[in-house]
Amino acid sequence: MCPLPLAAAAVAAPRAPLRLLNRGLTAAMSTARSLKSVDYEVFGRVQGVCFRMYTEDEARKIGVVGWVKNTSKGTVTGQVQGPEDKVNSMLECSGLI
């Protein structure tokens, strides 16, 4: 079953560096590319199927940072930050867009 996003809001402005798996956004901020930050919540069967682990692995491969966590409602919520093209790749491979 594919996870379906309820809401995603994008902001193309730099924010304070977040850390995901000991990687900061500092390197991305030094580039001339525009940055993007997306907050998301995923509904459906996303807990107990390694969705968070998959998301962290893909973020590491693509080169974005952020966070992801389970909620008490049975959903997964998170944030992805980085260069716009990499954030878009992350959203596509995770099925969020």
TrEMBL record:
Active-site annotation: R52, N70
Listed EC numbers: 3.6.1.7
Pfam families assigned: Acylphosphatase
Catalytic activity reported: an acyl phosphate + H2O = a carboxylate + phosphate + H(+)
Segments passing through the bilayer: none
Organism superkingdom: Eukaryota
Enzyme class: hydrolase
Keywords: Hydrolase
GO molecular function terms listed in the Swiss-Prot or TrEMBL record: acylphosphatase activity
Claim: Membrane is one of the keywords in the record: no
Family: Belongs to the acylphosphatase family.
Name used for this protein in its record: Acylphosphatase
Gene this protein is translated from: ACYP2
